[in-house]
Amino acid sequence: MTGNADQTIEDFVERLGLVTQADGLPRIAGRIMGLMVIYGGPFSFTDLAEKLQISRASVSTNTRLLESLGVIERTTVPGERQDYFKIRPHPYSPLMQGYVERMRRARDMVGSTQDELPEEFGEAHERLQDLNEFYETMIDSFEKVVEKWDAKSKRSSVEKPRQPAEEPA
Predict the structure, then answer these.
(1) If we measure between CA atoms, which residue out of 61, 60, 17, 54 comes closest to residue 35?
(2) Residue 168 in contact with residue 51, Cβ under 8 Å?
(3) pLDDT tens per residue across span 50-60
(4) Between residues 157 and 74, the one the model is more confident about
(5) 71 and 34 in contact (C-beta within 8 Å)?
(6) Fold (CATH) for 3-87
(7) DSSP string over the chain
(8) Looking at CB atoms within 10 Å, which of 5, 60, 79, 150 has the fewest?
(9) Cβ neighbours of residue 89 under 8 Å, at least 6 residues apart?
(10) Taking the alpha carbons of 50, 55, 86, 91 in that order, is the dihedral positive or negative?
(11) Angle between helices 27-39 and 56-68 (to 10 degrees)
C-alpha cells in the first residue's frame, strides 16, 4: 500500500472517531468502526489495540458497544482460541434503528411527564407537547430512512457481491 493510501486511511479512521464523538459515542468506538469500514476484519483484540494504539481494555469496552449497536460482530478464526471482530454486512440499518429506539424512549418519557404534571403547568404542557411532536416527526422520518436504506442495501448486495478488503501488513 502506498504512503498516500496509508495517510488517507489514518485520516478517515481519526475523522470517523471525531464524528462518532460528536454524536455522543466514544471516539475510540468510531476509530474501531473506521478501521472496520476500510478493512472489514476479522481483527483480534491485539490487532485492534496495536493498529489503533489503544489499550486492550478500550478495545473490549468499545467492541462491546459496537456489537450492541449492531455495527460489528464477534467471530472466530479456525485454529485460534481468541475472539475476533468484523463489520456486519449492512451495519447501518441497525445503527439507525438504535437511534429510533432512543427517540421512542425519549418520547415516552416526555409523554409520561405530561401525564404526571399538574394542569396548572399549562405552558410547560404546551412545550412538552411540542417536544413530543418533534420526537414523533423524527421517529417517522428515521423509520422511512431505515426502510429506504434497507431496500437500497438489498438491491446493492444482489447487484454486486461484497469483496473483503485486504488487511494492512
Answers:
(1) 17
(2) yes
(3) 999 999 999 99
(4) 74
(5) no
(6) Arc Repressor Mutant, subunit A (1.10.10)
(7) --HHHHHHHHHHHHHHHHHHHHTTS-HHHHHHHHHHHHH---EEHHHHHHHHT--HHHHHHHHHHHHHTTSEEEE--TT--S-EEEEPSSTHHHHHHHHHHHHHHHHHHHHHHHHHS-TT-HHHHHHHHHHHHHHHHHHHHHHHHHHHHHHHHHHHHHHSPPPPPPPP-
(8) 79
(9) 157, 162
(10) negative
(11) 80
Cell numbers at 109, concatenated: 418519557
- What the block records as the C-alpha cell of 94 is 441497525
Sign for the pseudo-dihedral over CA of 22, 15, 52, 149: positive
Task: State the residue for C-alpha cell 405552558.
Answer: 123
**Torsions phi, psi for 44 (to 5 deg):** -85, 170
**Residue whose C-alpha is closest to residue 137's, from 167, 110, 112:** 110
pLDDT at 3: 77
CB 17 within 8 A of CB 28: yes
HSE (CB half, 13 Å, CA atoms) of 159? 6
- CA 86 to CA 37: how far, in whole Å? 9
> What single-letter amino acid sits at 145?
V
Residue 7 CA, distance from chain mean position = 24
Q: What are the residue ranges spanned by the domains of the chain?
A: 3-87, 92-159
